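Notes continue from the previous slide.

Worked example: a multi-chain complex. Inputs as given:
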Amino acid sequence: TQLLEQSPQFLSIQEGENLTVYCNSSSVFSSLQWYRQEPGEGPVLLVTVVTGGEVKKLKRLTFQFGDARKDSSLHITAAQPGDTGLYLCAADTNAGKSTFGDGTTLTVKP
Amino acid sequence: DTGVSQNPRHKITKRGQNVTFRCDPISEHNRLYWYRQTLGQGPEFLTYFQNEAQLEKSRLLSDRFSAERPKGSFSTLEIQRTEQGDSAMYLCASSYGTVRYFGPGTRLTVT
């Protein structure tokens, strides 16, 4: 059983559309991270959310941490082809050890 | 600082051979992590070092796998008697606090 469930697994949209991807768990986390990964490269950290109910914005990306600190969402406004990639959420389960979801593969068509 | 580097970037080997990968973390990062990622999945935790001490080791890391960080700087991951199921991207990350910085990975193909 995956500790972090991400949905949808694949998403293909047109440039300019909005989208939301989700990261859900039955466990409570002290913090959760979102990464973006391009083919053949390592993940790059986008944001860390720590407080239940927290909302963080990074240009056209909005990240929200659930009130119970069990789930998170990533909303992209007016998606661009440069947003194409694999979006991963991750959480630390104990000191040093982290778990990742299987990601959402986003394709933004021009 | 140029970030986390990994060598080689690609490795093709025959089943049964041994392979070794190297990771050079960001300077002064005391923590170093190894992950494995297969197509369509997120990275899976393998092991973690704080300085030269290996503090966590996943059950995924069979006896054929060994990792070292002898001087608390670079790290090596060795796979002995490779199997086709070992084909994957091997990612290294380093951190000083909670933020992990990933390297570009080493893609291993076992034929």
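Summary box: Chain B touches chain A through 26 residues (CB under 8 Å). The two ends of chain B are 36 Å apart (CA to CA).
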